[in-house]
Write a structure and sequence with these properties.
Layout (H helix, E strand, L loop, with lengths): L1 E2 L18 E8 L15 E12 L8 H4 L3 E6 L4 E3 L12 H13 L4 H6 L24 H7 L8 E12 L16 E12 L1 E6 L2 H7 L7 H8 L11 E5 L5 E5 L5 E3 L2 E5 L8
Amino acid sequence: MFVYGSGCYLSNPVEAIRPGTIVSFGMYRLPCGHKPYQDGDPEIWMDIDWIVLDVIPPFSPETRLESSGGHKALMITRDCLDWDFFDYDKATWEGSSIQHLMNQYMYEQFYFPEDDRSAIIVSPHEDHQLCCYFNPDYFFLLTLDQVLHYFPEEKDRRSEMHFADELRLPLPGKSPDSVKWNDPDTFILKNEVSREPSNWWTCTPYTWEKAKDVLELNDDDEELFSECFGVDEEEDDVIPHMFAIGHQGEPFIIQADADEIGIRPAVWVDLDKVKIKR
């Protein structure tokens, strides 16, 4: 685990981990423009950067890691690490498709050195008033309230997603028209990383009360919003809606089965088990 700007002159550099610190641990394979991966897809791995949101209890001259211990950090990835739908027919985290994806596929596919993996807490820290109570999870999504609490400014909520692209470049001296997609003798393969702004999921389902509060709506808007986003209990095919964060950091409402929304895993880390690499 690396701490950027940690000030390693400290007797224990773990004490430099505080809200706003960027911590790097683990690696992930960049997504392509399709799912699942196919033979021949470019395989590019990147370090996972995490933004520290909270440390409990916070470090202070009176509270030293060596003497007190028990420090835990809530972190969220700086970038979206993947994209997928939340669920086809539910707007609750427990048992959702995205919960399974994050805690089975993503957790197993990410590369973590053993020291880093052992520091990931399975259950969230229940003493924290804004914590998600979703167990047993390694990774989880922040609630909308958490997002607004930890990122008060929209600009700080913006996120990007990196993609692994496979380019077919013409041979030296040849024109782009000479490239034949299925003829390897006509091109040079080059793997490239591209990035673009991304929406990303929260785990908060749509309700009129939450929409009115967050989006600053009037009572006159309730009927329209209920028609657009409400769930008709008599209709089995009505898709529930979730809150997500837009490209500019604004909250918005989207169907739970939208499949091109980014995923920013959050995690609790036991700082007593963290080993800082200098």
